[in-house]
Design goal:
Strand content of chain A: 25-35%
Distance between the termini of chain A: 19 Å
Structural class of chain B: alpha+beta
Strand order of the largest sheet of chain A: 10-11-12-9-3-13
Oligomer: heterodimer
Helix content of chain A: 10-25%
Radius of gyration of chain A: 17 Å
Order of helices and strands of chain A: EEHEEHEEEHEEHEEEHEH
Radius of gyration of chain B: 39 Å
Shape of chain B: elongated
Distance between the termini of chain B: 91 Å
Number of strands of chain A: 13
Number of helices of chain B: 24
Largest interface: A-B, 41 and 37 residues
Number of strands of chain B: 47
Shape of chain A: globular
Structural class of chain A: alpha+beta
């Protein structure tokens, strides 16, 4: 365990190479709970989305889009904007940019008070499920259609995972990848449910290092 | 009994065989070693080693032997490695497995209960509806015996504790059920346009009935001159080479549910397959013939013999008689002869059968039928009737092989809105009209011809591909045209025997239903008693209600019933095949246990501190860490710390937030100053309490609400519902997950907390029921000065990920004051001493705040709020009962929930009760009639069934002035 952006995180469990092999060969899960997560509710969401995704961005319910943001110190960081429902956006960013982003978006809110930005970083545990067998694994805990015909790259859905509500964002980088967000208090439970279900696929736990190398740059 | 198994019993190796002579395996059967070959099923191995009696029947304990080899009949059920009712005819052998016969004593070979066979007069059909009713004791006396005689195996108490069951969800464009020629052709055709196809096949390898088919086929062209198993192999090769066909082998489709949800079991796995189109290519099974002794070991269905010989290299021993009515029977007779079995004859019901040329010198008995089988533990001979001459003769034989009559496997289809109809030409009950997304192909259509099956499969696959808009690109009309043309030719060539008009005449019992030992006589009697159509006859006779679920008996029963009543087959009707079509264990259905567990971020801390974790709803909470009295003492005398992260927390913000809260809560919140906290209740329209909690005003239009742990989801919905209904502009967010919460309470709480924060905690600066935001140990916190446990204290809410850090910092800071963690139980005692209620514990669905002695929370003077009218009405009619405190006069503690007594009648109930640590006397809260609710009233509470005196107390038991809280 080592500290990264204020969070204690596992660099690796077995070895970086083994974990990367495990993901490429089958499936691995990693704890991405520290990801900055913001919920934008209200009619002003579209304006917020454009500021993150570009002027011409069109929001579509059930789709995530990659964008970026320049921080106060002049550095650009990636964000993901997931449109969960009309007037409801789920925005993720790297852990260390959470406050930057929350501050910036709050400053951009329309003044009518109808739109709010809530930092829900602490509310959601995040688990990244990556590798060629990731849909097989998730298919054991959810009855959502995860085949890429229905759940293509950058699709986002909400549903039940091992009987608890979750947000699933498909994010393929080299390997098929999925970011699953569940209520924080269910984090350990869902991790264990995946662990049990993944036994037959040789599921590996993936530390920060291997995760970064495999799917670096994903804002989650 | 069984000869020691030797490989000499086996036929010479053949490419169709699945057994591997070079890989012997062994297992135990009733304690004796049996050798087998890799690739055998338990049934084929036992048969090869000479076992003929596989089981004893349900009612009469008659010997039963291997009969279908397809997993349909109940004859081969055994206990394998502790699992009862395994169909050994299809279950593969495994090295070292322990196989035992069941439902027989001392063994299936010699079963003492076979005397039941002679007692049939005592047990006519429906006897349990008519007898053993009076005197009532007769049933009690008979029951142990009936339970012992009947029944199907025993489940070991230790089995299946490991829960290895797995559930999978699969989505497909097209699901094909059946891996025979039609199913494979359908899957291949459907996959051409890029459909996602799932192919579900019961067998361990693809091929269906072709696997045991060694006959050479003339058509279709591409397979001309090939034996069936070779055709299967070629098709299977294509399937395996098609990446968009997902194959589930050894998997049974047990149910087809609305929305094209297909239930499939595969060992301990359950697949839920959802597909847009479904192709049913489930094939057919052979229909047993009705003659006395038709259940004897040695009576085989044709497919059983075919599988035994061609898949496992095992031939029936002794002489065989083949019953045939089409070329398949003749083919099988010749295969038997080639395998060295002496075939004593072919009995053919047709007058002048086509293809009746004597095969290999086997005598053909045309226009004959079998009227009985003789033997006690196995077939010794067959009675055959010359229908033209009316003469019966006996043929000595050890095996009677039944072929010629088929019944489509329509079980899955009957679970849809598919109509079935009797086709008199085919003499089969076939699917007539399927729903638009369900297609049929192959033997299930009642047509048994390889070429047609393949064409039907392709047509079904093509139709399905069109249905999902990924067309296979085949000319469907041409396919359909070819099917019509070939089907006409097929039907023209059919030549069937006139159904026998005479009931069987030989002595002995004929069995329609092998599972439940139902005879034609039973059916006729049932019909005579008025149960003259299949649905009621089934329920009365228990026909088709056994393990085979009608697979062996339904068709013969419909035929017998229709002949007896003179109704047509369609009028007689059929029964409904409900899921599961194949037996399932409950564990398979239950699957892995997904019991969601909520853990606070401090879970590991509690474990390290030795907390006894208890289930509080979905949450895990520490009941206590040690003696509860010490935890209570720590809070009262020093400082205690408790994890209250489980509290429901809702963030309410927006311009209309004050108005929304005023209208849903009983108290007023528009006038609550920023930085203040107020306790309140919510009521439903009828005035009953839904929830309670504290509301803190963070800013003009921003509130922070705590709810009871269990109710937070309900409260979130409730607030959102009214927000939407009243069109108020408020954002309601459940932030329970996001905040950790710790309550620090006790006389030393201020000193402890002061070490970690700059916030001024002095009594004047930070008063009771006030809220401040500030840092504790570097963590941003919301401080709420409230006092659930009755001591000065702060409830702190902070981002959940800092929970452990906060806990450690507070424990460190408090160590010099003797800080101690306390659990849920100590908290319950402490709050009870303050008469603070717990929703759901001290109140129920109809409790209202006025009778709950909380009138100060209700502001009837404000504008309308939910429950106002009901509460006004309650006030008008007067209170009837009251939630009051009580103290026992003696050192006894009533249990929660015991009644309050008056004149020997229960008039109220205790909701919470604990012992006073100093006096040992019980105290707590109770609902009592209003006339018993005055301060000091003597009441009686039943403690361990004895009435005990107690006194009503209105004030809090501890610090009634609240002086300690406000210090």
């Amino acid at each position: 365990m080592e500290e990264r952006s204020g969070w204690l995180r596992p660099s690796f469990y077995t070895s970086v190479e083994e974990e990367m092999e495990g993901v490429k060969g089958s499936v691995g899960i990693s704890d991405i709970s520290p990801a900055g997560k913001l919920l934008v509710q209200g009619p002003g969401g579209e304006r917020i989305a454009r500021s993150l995704l570009g002027k011409d961005a069109e929001l579509q319910v059930g789709r995530a889009q990659a964008g970026s943001r320049e921080s106060a110190d002049g550095e650009t960081f990636p964000v993901a904007v997931c449109c969960l429902a009309p007037e409801e956006l789920f925005v993720t960013c790297p852990p260390e940019r959470r406050d930057d982003l929350a501050g910036a978006l709050n400053a951009e809110l329309p003044e009518d008070g109808q739109t709010i930005v809530m930092d829900v970083t602490s509310s959601y545990a995040g688990i990244n499920v990556a590798g060629p067998r990731s849909s097989d694994l998730l298919g054991k805990v959810t009855d959502l259609d995860l085949h890429h015909d229905a759940m293509s790259n950058l699709a986002c859905v909400q549903g039940q995972f091992a009987e608890v509500h979750g947000i699933l964002v498909r994010w393929d980088r080299g390997e098929p990848g999925n970011n699953l967000y569940v209520a924080r208090e269910y984090g350990v439970y869902v991790w264990e449910a995946l662990w049990e279900a993944g036994e037959e696929y040789g599921l590996v736990a993936v530390g920060v290092e291997a995760h970064r190398r495999l799917i670096g740059g994903v804002p989650a | 009994m069984a000869d020691p198994a030797s490989r000499d019993n086996r036929l010479p190796p053949h490419p169709s065989q699945r057994t591997d002579p070079s890989s012997p395996v062994s297992f135990t059967f009733n304690g004796k070693q049996v050798s087998a070959l890799e690739g055998d099923t338990i049934g084929s191995a036992l048969h090869s080693s000479g076992v003929r009696i596989f089981s004893r029947s349900f009612k009469y304990h008659r010997p039963r032997g291997l009969m279908c080899m397809t997993g349909d009949c109940p004859n081969c059920l055994m206990n394998v490695d502790g699992v009862p009712n395994v169909r050994t005819c299809t279950a593969p052998v495994q090295q070292g497995m322990d196989v035992q016969t069941q439902n027989a004593w001392p063994s299936a070979e010699h079963d003492a209960l076979s005397m039941m066979d002679k007692l049939d007069r005592l047990m006519p059909v429906g006897f349990y509806y008519k007898s053993l009713i009076r005197p009532r004791i007769s049933w009690d006396m008979a029951r142990p015996f009936i339970r012992r005689v009947a029944g199907l195996g025993k489940v070991g108490p230790d089995k299946d504790q490991d829960n290895e069951h797995q559930h999978h969800n699969l989505w497909a464009d097209v699901a094909v059920i059946g891996g025979g020629p039609a199913g494979m052709a359908a899957a291949l055709e459907a996959s051409k346009g890029g459909c996602r196809v799932v192919l579900v096949d019961e067998g361990p390898v693809l091929g269906g009935h072709l696997l045991s088919d060694v006959s050479v086929h003339a058509g279709p062209e591409e397979y001309a001159g090939l034996p069936g198993y070779e055709v299967a192999a070629r098709l299977a090769g294509e399937v395996h080479g098609t990446s968009n066909i997902k194959l589930l082998s050894g998997a049974s489709a047990f149910g087809l549910y609305p929305g094209n949800l297909l239930g499939v079991s595969k060992g301990k796995r359950l697949y839920k397959i959802r597909s847009k189109e479904i192709i049913v290519a489930t094939g057919c099974r052979e229909v047993p013939q009705m003659f006395p002794g038709n259940d004897l070991p040695g009576v085989y269905m044709g497919e059983a013999v075919r599988r035994l010989m061609h898949l496992y290299g095992v031939a029936p021993s002794g002489r065989a008689l083949v019953v045939a009515s089409d070329k398949r029977g003749y083919q099988l007779a010749s295969e038997l002869a080639q395998a060295g079995v002496q075939v004593v004859g072919i009995v053919d019901g047709r007058e002048s059968p086509v293809g009746s040329d004597a095969v290999d010198g086997i005598p053909v008995f045309a226009n004959h039928e079998v009227t009985g089988a003789s033997g006690t533990k196995g077939v010794k001979g067959a009675m055959i009737l010359d229908k033209s001459a009316g003469e019966t003769m006996r043929l000595g034989c050890e095996a009677i092989v039944i072929t010629g009559a088929y019944e489509p496997n329509t079980g899955l289809l009957t679970q849809t809105s598919t109509a079935l109809t009797y086709d008199p030409e085919l003499q089969e009950i076939v699917p007539a009209d399927t729903p638009s997304t369900i297609h049929v192909a192959g033997d299930v259509t009642g047509i048994h011809d390889l070429e047609l099956s393949l064409l039907q499969g392709r047509a079904a696959g093509c139709e399905a591909s069109l249905g999902v808009d990924k067309p296979a690109g085949t000319d469907l009309d041409a396919l359909r045209g070819a099917i019509v043309e070939k089907e006409q030719a097929y039907r023209a060539n059919l030549q069937s025997a006139a159904p026998s008009s005479d009931p069987p005449r030989a002595a002995g019992k004929t069995f329609v239903c092998l599972c439940e030992d139902v005879t034609p006589k039973d059916l006729y009697q049932g019909i005579d008693e008025g149960f003259d159509e299949m649905q009621t006859l089934k329920r009365y006779s228990t026909l088709s209600m056994g393990p085979c679920q009608g697979k062996m008996c339904l068709r013969p029963a419909i035929e017998l019933c229709s002949r007896y009543t003179g109704q047509t087959m369609d009028e007689t009707g059929s029964t409904t095949s409900r899921p599961p079509l194949r037996p399932l264990t409950l564990g398979t259905l239950a699957g892995p246990l997904h019991m969601p567990v909520k853990r606070t971020a401090l879970h590991e801390k509690h474990i390290l501190l030795g907390g006894a974790m208890a289930d509080v709803g979905p949450w895990k909470r520490p009941h206590s860490y040690g003696p509860v009295s010490e935890e209570i003492a720590a809070v009262r005398e020093r400082v205690g710390i408790i994890d209250v992260s489980t509290l429901g927390k809702i963030d309410v913000q927006g311009v209309d937030a004050p108005a929304l809260l005023d209208r849903v809560y009983t108290h007023r919140f528009s006038n609550l100053p920023v930085g203040r906290i107020r306790y309140s209740l919510l009521c439903s329209d009828n005035g009953s309490i839904i929830d309670d909690g504290t509301i803190t005003r963070l800013a003009d239009s921003h509130y922070f609400i705590t709810t009871t742990t269990a109710n937070v989801d309900l409260m979130e919905e409730w607030l959102k519902w009214w927000n939407a209904g009243w069109k108020t502009r408020v954002h309601v967010n459940n932030v329970t997950s996001g905040y950790g919460a710790i309550n620090l309470a006790g006389p030393k709480a201020r000193e402890t907390l002061s070490k970690l924060t700059d916030v001024d905690l002095s009594p004047d600066a930070f008063r009771y029921m006030r809220s401040v935001e500030g840092d504790v140990a570097g963590v941003p916190c919301l401080f709420l000065r409230i006092g659930f446990v009755g001591e000065i204290g702060w409830e702190m809410h902070f981002p959940a990920e800092y929970s452990e850090h906060m806990w450690d910092a507070l424990m460190d800071a408090g160590s010099e004051f003797g800080i101690a963690p306390f659990g849920v139980e100590a908290q319950r005692v402490l709050r009870l001493a303050k008469k603070h209620i717990i929703l759901g514990q001290d109140t129920d669905m109809v409790s209202n705040p006025l009778e709950g002695d909380l009138p100060w929370v209700v502001r009837l003077d404000k504008d309308d709020f939910i429950g106002k009218h009901a509460l006004e009405a309650i006030q008008e009619r007067g209170l009837r009962e009251m939630l009051v405190g009580f103290v026992m006069d003696e050192p006894v503690v009533p249990e929660d929930g015991v009644p309050v007594m008056h004149s020997g009648q229960p008039v109220g109930r205790v909701t919470s009760s604990r012992a006073d640590p100093t006096t040992g006397r019980g105290f707590g809260l109770a609902w009592v009639p209003v006339d018993l609710s005055q301060e000091g009233t003597q009441i009686t509470i039943r403690v361990k069934d004895n009435p005990r005196p107690a006194r009503v107390v209105h004030e809090a038991f501890y610090d009634p002035e609240g002086a300690r809280l406000r210090e």
